[in-house]
Design brief:
The strands form two sheets. The protein has a six-stranded antiparallel β-sheet with strand order 2-1-3-4-5-6. Strand 5 and strand 6 (155-162) form a beta hairpin. It is α+β, with helices and mostly antiparallel strands and 250 residues long. The chain has helices at residues 2-52, 71-78, 101-107, 176-179, 223-237, 241-249; strands at residues 79-86, 89-92, 117-124, 127-137, 142-149, 155-162, 198-200, 215-217.
Length: 250
């Protein structure tokens, strides 16, 4: 009986010891790698923003970012202003691209919190681009995008990504054939009202020649993901309408 008790005690103590050691190692690794992870996220955001405004290494049908080595310099060259819009106020802030959109959306569930909206003003070939980050829900998990617009809220470029959409179906939102369809699409209707862009299975314009119909062709087999992307664009970009209205009035 005592031997069995001693054996059980040894097992429990050994298990506790292993948990402590593994926990310590994981905490150490997390702390050690944190600067690298933070830097990688910073570079990824810069690449996403640049991609949306057409600063990329696209070839043929492939969607390719500028390299991580190039991104900081190009970001500085092309992004002229970083803005934070909050409760109608607009301020310049060179760290606006570090704002956590997921966290901001969560905090905004509290009616007392005024969500911070980052907006990046870029210039390329004499043209001004306004790039907004947006986030929503696809079929399985989060979807997000960076959308470049002109002063009339006409889309000039976009980069979409996802957390866990189905390969070959919903995951195709990050393929160039889908993202390029948004270029030239109007976010407002003919009367100037914001309506967003639907992703429609019944779209009568599969070649996407009509840029004022407020819709693009859906991805086959990815209806829920498409609906999530459309809802994301509609809900998040609507928040920027007062800024663009003010642009036109000044």
């Amino acid at each position: 009986m005592s031997k069995r008790t001693e054996g059980n005690l040894y097992t429990v103590l050994f298990s506790i010891g292993m948990v402590i050691v593994v926990g310590f190692l994981l905490a150490f690794l997390a702390s050690f790698l944190k600067p690298t992870i933070t830097e990688n996220k910073r570079l990824e955001k810069q690449q996403n923003i640049l991609y949306a405004m057409g600063v990329n290494n696209n070839e043929g049908n492939s969607a390719n970012f500028v390299s991580t080595d190039e991104a900081p310099g190009l970001f500085k060259d092309y992004i002229k202003r970083q803005l934070i819009i909050q409760d109608g106020e607009v301020v310049e802030d060179t760290t606006a691209y570090l704002i956590d959109i997921k966290k901001e959306k969560s905090l905004a569930k509290d009616d007392g919190y005024k969500r911070r909206l980052p907006l990046f003003v870029g210039e390329k070939d004499g043209k001004t681009y306004y790039i907004a980050p947006v986030r929503g829900k696809g079929l399985w998990d989060a979807v997000w995008a960076y959308v470049a617009m002109d002063e009339n809220m006409v889309i000039q470029g976009a980069y979409f990504d996802h957390q866990a959409e189905t390969a070959g179906l919903g995951a195709n939102i990050k393929e160039r054939f889908f993202m390029d369809d948004f270029i030239g699409e109007h976010l407002k209707d003919d009367s100037g009202n914001f309506v967003g862009v639907d992703i429609s299975k019944s779209n009568a314009d599969p070649l996407n020649n009509d840029k004022t119909d407020n819709e693009v062709d859906a991805i086959a087999g990815a209806t829920i993901t498409g609906d999530g992307v459309a809802a994301m664009l509609r809900s998040d970009l609507r928040l920027y309408v007062p800024y663009f209205d003010n642009l036109k009035n000044n």
